[in-house]
Design goal:
The chain has a single domain, classed as 3-Layer(aba) Sandwich (Dna Topoisomerase Vi A Subunit, Chain: A, domain 2), CATH 3.40.1360. The longest helix has 24 residues. Helix 2 links the parallel strand 1 and strand 2. The chain is built from six helices and four strands, in the order H-E-H-E-H-E-H-E-H-H. Helices cover 57% and strands 10% of the residues.
């Protein structure tokens, strides 16, 4: 397969995933990310709903879980980084949320992680990665 065709498909799949994420977020499903820059990145990628930064204000994992519970949400999207710590946090959040009868959604995390592989280690890097892909697929390097 031609490289640019492969990159174009990858770009389209990521954009589609982000579009679905934006729709779910617009319907009121909160998204948990690691830090403020991750929030800014999702905003730059046109995701409008409630985004909770896990690493701000010195909050613990349990504080964040109870914040989400207080929202009255029954589902929350986990979109932590793709590095080792992000994977650990995702696992811990998922376990804590399931104990509170909430549905942790890691579908987007898995899908994006699968698409970007080792090229992007965090959510924050997603926007610049998309710009790089766009440049490569439009022939400007």
């Amino acid at each position: 397969m031609h490289l640019s065709t492969h990159l174009k498909e990858k770009e389209e799949k990521i954009l589609q995933t982000l579009e679905w994420l934006a729709q779910e977020s617009a319907q009121g499903i909160s998204i948990i990310v690691e830090g403020k820059k991750d929030v800014e990145t999702l905003r730059a990628l046109a995701i409008e709903g409630k985004i909770i930064a896990a690493k701000t204000n010195g909050k613990s994992l349990l504080d964040i879980v109870s914040d989400v519970e207080e929202c009255g949400a029954c589902e929350v999207i986990l979109l932590l980084d793709f590095d080792r710590r992000g994977r650990e946090w995702t696992k811990h959040f998922k376990q804590h949320l399931e104990k509170t009868q909430m549905k942790p959604n890691i579908v987007y995390w898995k899908k994006l992680r699968g698409l970007v592989g080792r090229e992007v280690k965090d959510i924050e890097g997603l926007a610049s990665y998309m710009q790089t892909l766009k440049r490569k697929t439009t022939g400007f390097t």
